[in-house]
């Protein structure tokens, strides 16, 4: 390979080389181009500009001129790329990426151009996480593959072009690369046009400060509950991947025999400590005692588990760590306490059927139906029921008494209005990030209206007419079916949700962390309806009697990330990783009146990772949940047809063949068979319509057998 120089007079060039490709020899030309002004890039990277691109790009277009068997020789061979690869260990990863891209293209397409963009840093420092380029390009439709070339806490140096700068030195400076999806033929024109579009994608996705002055300090974070094995639940993949990319050493605290205890899991965690995680009054002490035996210092404790949040906070308090108030965790954990904190006059809590009858006998006015009945402490909508009469109310409370012994039943009004999931990230009491997504009606939410213009449309203060959901689930199931993001509620209602729910979090005493809240917008300007294209949010009819301003009804607060399906969907839509932010918030939990260099570094990294993708890169996502519809023995599931599978970016079948499932209608539990995250190919309203439609096609096409 000719070690051509990149000078101020020469930002383009051509060289030739040979390389081995799948048992053959290939002679290739490489046209290269350096994009952007180095002086301007360095200047932009050196100032506090949240929309500056802190890198340059180097285009490499590899055109095969001839390919022949290895036992034949080229009369006038150019230098072999393999010989250069050995000259510098810094170029090994870059050359490996280039070789793999060329090999893939030649194997599949034979004579086609392989186009790659290398990213060259415009400033010195440390990358906020060592897979940032891959994570920001999850939905880039121009990228065939993406790679990061930095290691955790590795200092990178700004690429400075000077008179004797060579192409090889440019490759050594690369922090990442993007392989353009293959275009047919050997015409450079279409490839160069596509590379211009890819350059625009890079500017959109990477124009934020992902190179910072100092690395994240070495921290050991205790993770209480190491989550299920990745083959069983994809949640753990996101958690451990984020920790590794950030350079956080995880100390996993879990029961004896957990998969992370095995030596094969050392790549994911620094240490495993056995602890009995039975939820009782002694759990905080057992966690603190277990961590006191750690081989190294512990800097903070966290968990992603609802059941363990209060105990984990108390363990952190015992060990002297700054933590969210355990009392606030208790309020979030207990729905009776949550309702008392938010609206004391709209609910009642009873202990069993006898307590219910005694309470009803003391009421001054009759109950108004429908009502929601749920256990004060429960998870995943277990035991939740909507009741339409006293008979159904008695039955629901009795079922909770039998299925959740010792736990009160909470009874509250059923609030009409679109339900949402709202996720908020706080740091030192400041809201750094929030998003709202639409939680489509469950089977129990049989409140859809028809969009037929000939029908009278009811006001939002009156229960809408009832029609059937397009779901095979029984009508009393509150199992989730669909979540679509971003929300299409009016901006003023999203703003109302954000301000109201953030104020609730701050009143509870929360300062740091990722919070997942569920709520309804009462008297919303929109409602779910059955349209000619399926179920969707539509504007309420003109001429109705709705005069009340929208208000927010809080359903529940979770002081942790949402379910991992939603976490993955958020990252695909917005480029925000909730698993990473949750861990950084735990490490950032310091007393508000203290500041240090460590705090400043953490804050800089957190602010960087809270930068969403710009609107033009936000592709709507649809999380399709498939709950069981009856009990029995799970036999298996069929893969999706390819025409639908191409839209699915994450999926998981949770059940294993032979697994026995109880009757969900009797037990009040609706475990998921599978989930699918459908990602749009378009943005905006077009993308929203696309993922809603494709998601329902996925639901209908997914076939499984329960005997």
SSE topology sketch:
Layout: E1 12-21, E2 24-35, H1 38-46, E3 55-69, H2 81-85, H3 92-109, E4 114-121, E5 125-127, H4 132-136, E6 143-148, E7 155-156, H5 167-173, E8 176-180, H6 188-206, E9 211-212, E10 220-224, H7 235-246, E11 249-254, E12 271-274, H8 283-291, E13 300-303, H9 309-318, H10 326-333, H11 335-342, E14 348-350, H12 352-361, E15 371-375, E16 385-387, H13 390-403, E17 409-413, E18 419-427, E19 430-439, E20 449-450, E21 482-485, H14 491-508, E22 513-522, E23 526-531, E24 534-539, E25 551-558, H15 564-574, H16 578-588, H17 597-609, E26 621-627, E27 632-637, H18 642-645, E28 648-653, E29 660-661, H19 664-667, E30 672-679, H20 684-701, E31 704-706
Parallel strand pairs: 10-11, 10-13, 11-12, 20-23
Antiparallel strand pairs: 1-2, 2-3, 3-4, 4-8, 5-7, 5-9, 6-8, 14-17, 15-16, 15-17, 18-19, 18-22, 19-21, 21-26, 22-25, 23-24, 26-30, 27-29, 27-31, 28-30
Protein name: ATP-grasp fold domain-containing protein
Organism: Hypoxylon rubiginosum
